[in-house]
Design a protein that fits this description.
single chain; alpha/beta; 5 strands; binds zinc ion
């Protein structure tokens, strides 16, 4: 599990003032706890608010090293999205364009996330520019839990019950992917 950003890199800032890096860690920790209750081993890239190196790129490299050395069956990086149009909302899962396993995991996770928000019409999406997707040698997905630029979603993402729902959806998705 990777909680995106941290330390000097706050990630996106919500319209309600919430920082992406903090929400990422809260949700990632919830996912970790639920997975461990299911007997699934979890390696976290960070459990504190900080960088793993002196620089942002150094931090990203270190995260990728941890993911690759873990030989994980799946690496999941938790993020929050933002857009210049307030109306845009909805969780979305990204995978590396040429990764069949990444795509399969993203599709399963996306479907689970749609279950908790019937208004969300987003689909999993291929990407070949995100550093973590490019550099990992294990199947990797980036889960953008929602848009901090949308007032309603920023409030939901800041709510502990909703954070729990997101975590449960991610865990259900990971479990189904492992059973495939
Ligand atoms: Zn992010």
């Amino acid at each position: 599990m990777d909680a995106g950003h941290g330390g000097p890199d706050g990630g996106k800032t919500g319209v309600n003032g919430k920082l992406e890096k903090e929400l990422n860690l809260i949700i990632a920790e919830k996912v970790k706890k639920l997975l461990e209750e299911e007997g699934i081993a979890v390696i976290m890239t960070r459990e504190e608010d900080g960088w793993l190196a002196e620089t942002r790129i150094g931090d990203l490299k270190e995260r990728v090293r941890i993911m690759n050395e873990s030989k994980a069956d799946l690496a999941v990086s938790i993020h929050q999205n933002s857009y210049h149009e307030e109306s845009v909302f909805g969780a979305q899962v990204f995978y590396y364009t040429t990764s069949g396993e990444g795509k399969a995991a993203a599709e399963i996770l996306q479907n689970e996330l749609l279950e908790i928000d019937p208004e969300n019409k987003k689909r999993e999406k291929a990407n070949n520019t995100y550093y973590i997707l490019k550099k990992t040698e294990v199947p990797t997905v980036i889960v953008e839990c929602g848009f901090l630029s949308n007032h309603k979603e920023a409030e939901k993402l800041s709510d502990e019950a909703y954070q729990g729902k997101i975590a449960e959806a991610v865990v259900k998705g990971i479990k189904s992917f492992f059973l495939k």
